[in-house]
Amino acid sequence: MTEPILKIDKVEKHYPLPRRRLLERRRSFKAVDGVSLAVAPGEVLGIVGESGSGKSTLARLAMAFETPDAGAVTFMGEDMTRISPDQNALLRRKLQVVFQDPFSSLDPRRTVGWSVSEPLLASSFGAAQRRERMIAAMERVGLSADLAERYPHQFGRPAPTHSHCARHHHRPGPDRRR
Ligand SMILES: Nc1ncnc2c1ncn2[C@@H]1O[C@H](COP(=O)(O)OP(=O)(O)O)[C@@H](O)[C@H]1O
Ligand SMILES: [Mg+2]
């Protein structure tokens, strides 16, 4: 079997509950209680559960945005809870979050092309190279280059999600535009 890219081993996350009485022992709530999973390279894993069952908390633990109270998170062979901040920053570059509501992550006052190329402002690429890469990223997610000049509200629902994916240099697979 290939080595998993992400391994979550018996992780727990406890959140403190408010005290009901002044001298009461601090109790906590187990938002995630001993979850283990492994994701192989190229594999897609969906997590389903009712609201409040701990899906977002598990995602934050997987991204090392939060530290588990027990268990371990291994990403690309590194224990995310034990690595140095420098190593963490390096691994972070390989992790991306695509939020559910793409409108909240696209600036309504900027063209979609601008938002897609924005992350490259931190790179050493010049304007022409940034534009080239922006167009390549858009096309990779099924958006033609001329759509780069549009604003988020000028798209239907699915396109902003695509743009958002392009912004993160994702490869979401088949074009699902209607
Ligand atoms: N930062 C936090 N502090 C306290 N309780 C939290 C915090 N984050 C989440 N919770 C609680 O943990 C539980 C799981 O939340 P969450 O992971 O957001 O669930 P889901 O994403 O499945 O809806 C909920 O009861 C929620 O109220
Ligand atoms: Mg959630």
Give a brief outline of the structure.
The chain has 178 residues and is α+β, with helices and mostly antiparallel strands. It has 5 helices and 4 strands. The protein folds into 2 domains: 6-92, P-loop containing nucleotide triphosphate hydrolases (Rossmann fold); 102-167, no CATH class.
Secondary structure blueprint with pairings:
Elements: E1 6-16, E2 28-39, H1 55-62, E3 70-75, E4 78-79, H2 85-92, H3 112-117, H4 127-140, H5 158-167
The structure holds adenosine-5'-diphosphate and magnesium ion.
Describe the structure.
With 178 residues, this protein is of the alpha+beta class. It folds into two domains: 6-92, Rossmann fold; 102-167, no CATH class. The chain is 26% helix and 17% strand. It is built from five helices and four strands; from the N terminus they run ββαββαααα. α4 packs across α5. The longest helix has 14 residues, at 127-140. The radius of gyration is 20 Å and the shape is globular. Residues 170-178 have low confidence and may be disordered. It binds adenosine-5'-diphosphate and magnesium ion (MG).
